[in-house]
Amino acid sequence: MRALLAFLGARLTRALVAVWLVSTVVFVVMRLSGDPVPLLLPPDAPRSEYARVAKELGTDRPLPVQYVVFLGHVAQADFGRSIHFREPAMRVVLGYLPATAELGLTAFVFAVLVAVPVGVISAVRRNTLVDQAAMGVALVGQSAPTFFLGILFILTLSLKAGLLPTSGRGDWTHLVLPALTLGAFAMASIARLTRSALLDVLRQDYVRTARAKGLREWRVVAKHAFRNAAIPVLTITGLQLGTLLGGAVVTETVFAWPGIGRLAIHSIYNRDYPVVQCVVFLSAVLFVALNFFIELVYGFLDPRIRPR
Amino acid sequence: MASSIPVSVPAEAPAAEAARGGRVAQRTRRLVAAGAVFVVLLTLMAAAAPWLAPQDPVRQSLRARLAAPTLEAADGRAHPLGTDHLGRDVLSRMIYGARVSLLVGFAAVMVGGLVGAALGILAGYRGGWTDTVIMTVADAQLAFPFILLAIGIIAVLGPSFPTLVIVIGLSGWVDYARVLRSQVLVLRSREFVDAILALGGAVPRIVARHILPNVLSTLVVIATLQLARAIVLEATLSFLGLGIQPPTPSWGGMIQEGREYLDSAWWISIFPGCLLLLTSLVVSRSGDWLRDLLDPTLRSE
Amino acid sequence: MSGLTRRELLKAAGVAGVAGAAAALPSALAGPAGAQGTQKRELVVAQGGDISKFDPHYSTSANDIRISFNLFDNLIARHPDGKLHPSLATDWKLTNPTAWTFKLRQGVKWHNGDPFTSADVKYSFERTWDAKQNTRVSTVFTTVEKVEAPDANTVVFTTKKPDPLLAARVAFYGGQIVPKKYLEAVGNDAFNAKPVGTGPVKFVSWTKDDRIVLEANPDYFGGKPDFDRFVMRAVPEMAPRVAGLLKGEVDIITQLPPDQGERVSGHPSTRVAGALYAGLYVLAVNSKVPPLDNPLVKQALSLAVDRDLIVKELWRGRGIVPSGPIAKGDNHFDSSLPALKYDPSQARERLKKSGYKGEEIVIETTAAYMANDKPMAEAVVAMWRDIGVNGKVEVVEYSVRAQKNRDRTFKGLWWSDPTSTLSDPDGMFWRLLSPGGPQDYWRHPRFDELGEAARFSVDEKFRGQAYKEMTKIFLEHLPWIPVIQPYEDYGLQKHVDWTPNPNQQFEIRRFAFKFRRA
To answer: From residue C139, how far is each of A108, A124, A241, C14, C435 by CA, in Å?
Structure first.
């Protein structure tokens, strides 16, 4: 039990540090550009608004005090009002969150469902054409910039073949290309890792023993090898959730998917800094929470720290 | 623990490789050489752009806009890779675009490397609180979707070459830091370092003579993988409009400009995109092979 | 139960489900009806951006007026045939040289049920020129001295001097009637969030940057429109906008660039409909910012632009090169005036003479808000670079452009598409460039004098001379650099029976729009 608590404690600390770090960077960058107040208000705001916000941020006080005030606001999830939408920034961002969640989860599930079997098959059928082809594709998927992959998909599957819509959110057909694009990197990484993890395990002595005992290959794989290969695979799979969040920014832009990634980009073009800050912060929190959860699962699985 | 380097997989397990008597090693060495040649050629191409590019990359020629790859377009010139929506030669822009990709890429890798090495050495040498703080920050940044922070920073400070280099560079300092830190820790356990310091020896000399030689090959591997990452990140930011601004040609920018014409003039986006893909593939694979060759212990869990 | 195990049952159900879905899929993906006729009762339109405001007095840009002219009515309406027709007013006449009497339609109700009366008319007009309100239409009715409502059905306009164009003024922007009782009760912001008008459609919802949903007003005095719902979608990117049309998801799309025209006309179920724009596409100049305060610089900039090439290549010939600030088709258009010249060597000369020292000159452009805005900006800047100007293109989002327009913070030049609201120079360049007007960045005493005089004269010959002279002054000082008078194209499904208005007014009332019923 102690081991588990220590483990969790360390992970929680790291999570909080990450969120604090992101907030600090946001604060520093906003101050670096000069007076932050004009950035947070529409240009036609009356002087009284300007004065009020300046007072709230404490721009007349010394920098460390401003920092504390800022952290206070962040803790209350108060990022001010969106200049473009004229609503609290947090409310706007939360409104766009479901679309990103839909895309991200679909991409993730899709990636795992395809990658793991492919990795297993590649490992079992090592060095055959299937293996080489699959790993070749995975290589490209891992090296390709996400945005270009999306454009390639649009060109081939949507424009030329006319099979799927080019952009936007609607019925399930709209989800296919964005999910494929977003999940490509994760899919490739998981497939490659599954293969190598399984190969490693398959070389172990106890597997050889099982084979020598005369067990059929697939039984060997399923019963012994896979369970032990699962831990690294799970870890890397969990980590992909985080990269999905980052990839969402680009994928949503390419496919005009109305999620928080596209919101962030458009808010930058609109000079709507409250929303930009809010998206950055919320993404950090989400990412950190997801990772923390995954590490929790990992902690339970790892026999070294599992509570007895 | 996660690495910011994309998960890479060794070509063969070390034991098996040894068993093959280094034949795989030989093959890998050749592949690395090929990769290096590619990068050198690309760099030469970028450097020689003014002489190599058939045309001025910003020269518009409205008469020949959206021309398919041809030997004679409406403006009487050859455009082997076609023209864009303003009649600018795609091939020339791609050649010049390589400058941006490589310049930002190399610069970012250097920034990341210097910052990372410095912090790593600091963490290893000082230990205690400094170490804890630096490592916690490193862990926190690791695998965090840095692009979100990057766009947040660029949104406020505005896109410019220095901002871009610093932001992209800082996205990758952690790997260098960890390596340097562990090397320093190893050395600290050896008494002769304390002896040298007691005698008034300077830290930089220690770094140069005792630390760097041991980690050089590892750093090269990291740098190569980081270069691929940096190039892709720069292209992504340019695609989003947050990178190098037009009319300076950049691969990401070209892909963005060609989006509107995907159905009618696909070459505007596809050619630069394929070159980007190829570069990313070759450089990151070279990094993988280098790692297999030089330091398989870098393989992440 | 029969011999089927549960597992087999489930499997069968699964197969049946998939088969059923597969069968349903083609019809779900296909459009609502055949290419030539349709049963649909919902009109879906996609335009190049979201609106900035519903309030008709606070925005006159193309994206906004497509909605505001349908939520609200004017006293008089200009139909696609170019003529003025009764709308909220049934009759109007000049009762003495400086007074117009309008008889209002009876029995009209606001969307919230309140009755429409002359008090609303008086309130609306007074609001446009109320200095405290600071509307965008404050210079439309500067000829009017006062508005009176002697009884519930009558309105009398008294003009400062004889104004022959009052009826035309009342028909265009600024002349939309807003509800006095509702507005005074809820205030400008709430009114903008939930607008109430008398028009053929009522407000239902607004999802920012996505869509506006309006429903047909069954009690509209002009008859219920030929649909139950009108959805205006904001699709700033051109590729998905066109794709939406070709896939049948959208009935009409606006701001169709000529590059895409062939795609749309080549497609079996769609066609292109266009009209020569009643206005110009110009590069408006912030003449307060040096070096743009120097007329020689601006002349050089204008001489350096190869407009013929732009029309031919970027517009596929769908446009004409302007000759000055007056659009073709307007009163007093001087067809003898030559098209704006392209002469790079003269341009270089003027630039040198002006003492230009290489200061940066910026065009701030949107991307795909006005057709070809960004490509034209890039082409023009390249042409300027050729004569030695340090030109630069900066792309800004539409909302940022709207802000800069309101606050007059443009760095140099920007695209403007001044609409000729009265088919007369008074309603186009004078409305915008006059003292206190929305584009008041430059003044010239003789120009101002002539503009004022022409506004109030009933002598068309005098007005013609005045505008001739003003054009000369304009061409010397170039507060705008006119670039093209384009055909504004729209993409439509063939089952839509609709002709575009040359002045960007998106008319969906019964007399202008209907679906071709199968």
So the answer is: 57, 79, 57, 68, 9
